[in-house]
Specification:
Length: about 525
């Protein structure tokens, strides 16, 4: 939660900072102890997303009604005139925003009803809230945004006993959460400040840090995302399309947009909950529903975008995951040229082959892999050899520090590929394994570490004990083993030992010990006791 506060503090006044700190603390205390981090994540991020959609809808509708000197919240929904206004606004909203909410369905209105202190007021909102979330999804049916909103709130279970044993207890808890969130102003009117999007991204990171092995399913640390994004956008002020075949919460794709202008985003994610998170993350960052196409399926077994070629391809696939390696894939265009399939116990190079297939001729691809992918033999050796010897696609190998990913302490690397390389005669090797800061139990890449890696890649500079441009012949002589120490010499020679100087020191020590013994013997004689030697 502290990183979220720091992020938002940087663009808020002191009073706003104190208010926000208290509001977020209240929200944390409301749900703390009720459920585990995964469940808390689904609720809090889901409600933040609902608040975002609601405020966008409110702002958009008010802008439409401005010429009539009306506010959206003042429309009487059941009157004939009100119905006309709502129908007209709905048509425009579905085209522009991709979804629709009636005035009574706005987040602020639901929060007020749940926390009303008027005598005789009905504060029970759970049923209404569930209907509203369903209505948001159903409002898109038959429209261009249907796939992007389909079952988006399915993980937000308002019937769960984790919220309370009775309906009244559940209602009270949810009402409190909505109340606290309603009091936070994320300033959506300021189109230049992506406060809510960045806050959401940081919240996802906070949840990942406490999620253990599960974190790898949905989140790539921002420092690693920055390196990948900076590498694949090198020299480009605009790219047509970005793609991540294992997109998780879409943090890698969104990082591309911080480095350059991206026209279209494509991604695929197997886990349903994470897939929902990715779509929410995209929308919360202001990416229009027509600009992204994220699908839910197993990328290797059931690829969804095979007809596309992408200018920037980034990925942090699950390390050494299992896949079917079905012999039928030997005729699949993604794998057929290599002669062998990646082993069923380690899909690392299957993901590489898939990504290369979808890489455009003018594109750059960067993928995170475990170190074993650099030197394992068998089918993986044959695939590496084909990529380097036959295709000459490998552009760089970058070794990262151990323990920088959530849920695993193993060292990792980044492989960079291009189909049209500017320097086809060599491959750049970078050993960045020793450049990091230890924060609690995690190793973290600092800004200077990121800059060192990216600048070395862009300039292809050779630095002693850090980077080396290895010729294709050197790599072939090493039998296509890409283990970084074979190319970047990090050996530190020990200082030479002066035997004569040590012998002189030993002689001096002996003399000193004899003098000390005499001194002790004198003290013992004075005390009339035996000497200890």
């Amino acid at each position: 939660m502290s990183e979220l506060l720091i992020l938002i503090y940087s663009i808020m006044s002191e009073d706003q900072k104190k208010q926000l700190e208290q509001q977020l603390w209240n929200i944390a205390n409301t749900l703390r102890g009720k459920m585990n981090a995964d469940e808390f994540r689904d609720y809090i991020l889901g409600f933040i997303f609902y608040k975002y959609l609601s405020e966008k809808m409110h702002l958009y509708a008010d802008a439409i009604l401005e010429q009539d000197n009306m506010k959206y919240i003042d429309i009487e929904e059941n009157s004939d005139q009100g119905k006309e206004y709502i129908e007209a606004i709905k048509e425009e909203s579905l085209e522009k925003l991709g979804y629709f909410l009636k005035p009574s369905e706005l987040f602020s209105e639901v929060a007020k009803r749940g926390n009303s202190d008027k005598e005789g007021a009905d504060n029970f909102i759970l049923e209404d809230l569930q209907k509203i979330l369903t209505n948001i999804e159903q409002s898109t049916m038959g429209t261009a945004s249907e796939d992007d909103f389909d079952n988006l709130f399915e993980d937000l279970d308002l019937t769960s006993t984790k919220l309370g044993r009775t309906e009244s207890a559940k209602n009270e808890l949810i009402s409190k959460v909505l109340y606290h969130l309603d009091n936070i102003d994320f300033k959506l009117e300021d189109t230049k400040a992506d406060v809510l999007g960045d806050a959401y991204e940081y919240l996802i990171g906070q949840f990942a840090s406490g999620a253990g092995k599960k974190a790898g399913e949905f989140y790539t640390p921002q420092e690693v995302s920055m390196i990948l994004a900076k590498i694949v956008t090198t020299g480009k002020t605009k790219i047509k399309s970005g793609y991540d075949p294992t997109c998780g919460s879409a943090s890698l794709l969104l990082r591309l947009a911080k480095e350059t202008e991206v026209s279209e985003f494509y991604g695929q994610e197997m886990n349903r909950t994470t897939y929902n998170l990715a779509r929410m993350n995209m929308i919360l960052h202001g990416v229009h529903y027509r600009q992204f196409n994220i699908r839910q399926e197993d990328t290797l077994e059931h690829p969804q975008h095979l007809d596309k070629r992408f200018e920037a391809v980034v990925a942090n696939p699950p390390f050494s995951a299992q896949w079917s390696a079905n012999p039928l894939f030997t005729t699949d265009d993604r794998f057929s040229q290599y002669g062998k399939l990646a082993p069923s116990s380690k899909a690392d190079f299957a993901f590489v082959q898939h990504m290369i297939y979808q890489l455009a001729d003018n594109g750059t691809m960067a993928v995170v892999l475990p170190h074993g992918a650099l030197f394992r033999g068998g089918a993986e050796l044959q695939i590496r050899r084909y990529l380097i010897e036959d295709r000459n696609y490998l552009d760089a190998v970058i070794g990262l520090p151990a323990n920088i990913f959530y849920g695993t302490s193993i060292p990792t690397c980044i492989l960079v590929f291009k189909k049209c390389r500017e320097t086809p005669e060599d491959v750049l090797f970078i050993d960045a394994s020793q450049y990091f800061e230890k924060v609690k139990t995690q190793n973290v890449l600092r800004d200077e570490d990121i800059d060192r890696i990216v600048n070395t890649y862009r300039e292809r500079t050779e630095t002693e004990k850090f980077s080396k441009r290895a010729t294709l012949k050197e790599i072939a002589d090493n039998d296509y083993n890409l283990n970084i120490p074979r190319y970047v010499d990090t050996f530190e020679a020990e200082d030479q030992i002066d035997i004569n100087a040590i012998a002189s020191e030993l002689v001096d020590l002996d003399k000193s010990m004899l003098e000390t013994d005499k001194l002790i013997a004198g003290f013992c004689a004075e005390l009339n006791i035996k000497t200890p030697f």
